Amino acid sequence: MVFCIADTIAKILSASLPIVQINWMRYLIFALMALALTWQNPGDAFRVRAPRMQIARGLCLVASSLLFVFGIQRMGLAEAATISFVAPLLVTILSIPLLGEVVGIRRWAAVVVGMIGVLVVMRPGTGAFQPAALFGVASSTCWAAGLIMTRKMAGTERTATTLLWTACTGFLVLSLALPFDFVWPNPTQLALALAQGILSSVGQWLVVLAHRTAPASTLAPFSYGQLLWSVLAGFLVFSALPDHWTILGATIIIGSGLYTAHRERVRAGEKREARP
Fold it and tell me: Who contacts 130 (Cβ-Cβ below 8 Å, separation ≥6)?
């Protein structure tokens, strides 16, 4: 719900402020939050074992954020949220070359079904196709790559440190681009931008808290609740509702995603049982 409210504000602001500037405000607050989390050990917070991977993760996530806002600027929140759910399926695909995981026929079938759901939403080759949907696919790809890097560093890097590197990397990149695309905000725009940055940072922190107490495969189904909030926000704020093709595609994607999460949970249980 928190992420949906932040996305709604970002869509509102994208009509009058540059997208780089909107994300810069978000990352400013994100960086301040990350610094607050590590203030007791400021020196240790910057010490990492894989600095290049930390920077690459930060670049992937800031690219995902920028591309997502570009997408919602031109299409509905529900459609953008639906396409973003392809990320878990892309994680499955990328885990093969990057993590060396073995993906069975059932998970491959779930990935194929999920991709069909994305095509149903996008409808390429028809008059209903929105090129902005490609921003959503690109955003999800960057997000999936960032999640893969998170997995690779999970055993060696602290969560607070990874958050700090991600926030600082994104803030630095956006700060370098900000002078080339900047508009002085009025008080209302500034208040909305601050609210969007705070909500996005709170959402990140809630995700971290959730992953401290439950495995990712258990938490994955709850992320699909964002689609319901996106439909509600789209209707209340923009008087827009998803068409039947988007609902059908969302149903297919969510079904494949839930099955993938189930298989992840089964595989995790098998690994635990196989340990001596």
Answer: 74, 75, 79, 122
